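Notes from the 1:1 (GR / supervisor)

We went over the backlog. Supervisor wanted to see one worked example end to end before approving the batch request, so GR pasted a single chain during the call. The sequence is below; no edits were made to it. Supervisor asked that the structure be written out right there so they could see what the output format looks like.
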Amino acid sequence: MLKKISKLLQKQNITLEEHKLIIPTYNRNKYALYAYIVFGVIFLIYLVDLFTTVNLGINGLFVYVALTLLVLYPLATKTDNHNEGLVITAKYIIKREERNSLIVIEFDKITKFKDDKDELYIIQNSELIAIKKDLYTAHIEIIVDILEAKGKTFNKAKDFMIRPIQIKFDGDEIKIEDIEVDETETEKVTAALYSDYGHLTPGFLEEIIPRNTIIREVVLDGPHLQLKCSQLSVKEDHPENTGYGNLEVDDSILVFENALIMDFAVRDSNERSAKYNEFEVTSQNLIDELTNSVIDDWKYGKGKVMFIFKAGLGNVRLEIKYKEVIIGWNSEK
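Structure output shown during the call:
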């Protein structure tokens, strides 16, 4: 099979390098086996009846009917495809379904993925590879692991699994090796907070509801803005929320990495008709205006957020542009 696959790949200007060939494992039908045995016994009795003086009552018509029901029908309905196979390389997942055709998908160019109860569907534009779980049981997990590491399951809850990897082949095994990269600024900021917060996750700001959240402390850590808060409501799509419905947490923090203040304005009244006055962006002004304020409204955008805070008898409007957000908390209600 590999020689044929290699020739077909050469037609697509692809060289088959390090790889793993996976042959589907078909569950043998034990009832078909019993049928063959029963037919063998019937045929043996027929031969005894035919070539000896013993009359066992087995005639040719009976043997023909038995052959049709016990042998020919099971063979005709057999679903084994001896042309089928999967090939995993460091770059591609390849499926052969027919003798002279291949479906070749590049891991990094996968556009859609679906994990059904019985099959995995891997799609690159118009190309689709369907993998039946019962035929490739031993390798389904590693295939999914590869896709999760490359961010190709398109599951936000699995974004934390995305990382640079190498796909290695050790004898009969497919292995994933992480590629060591320099620690990112997000990782450094997160690591510095681990001792203070039991739960920390980069991203997923849209899964946070900060209604009536009190800002207990404002910390400017270099280019990063920390808002140490009271309670937050965490939606069920957040990876740290493993239950059903929103999760209510306390002793929380919002960290905006490389924060750039786009708008900082104050008004002295809660009246909607009152005008905001631009305020000078200084560390002390941010601390003075935001400490003990309450988040009254918010609007999330891509890489930016706008908050309205209740502060005394007035309001503070703050718009932040940021590189990444880190959300943490300690206790759950």
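Supervisor's comment: The chain has a mean pLDDT of 87.
Batch request approved.
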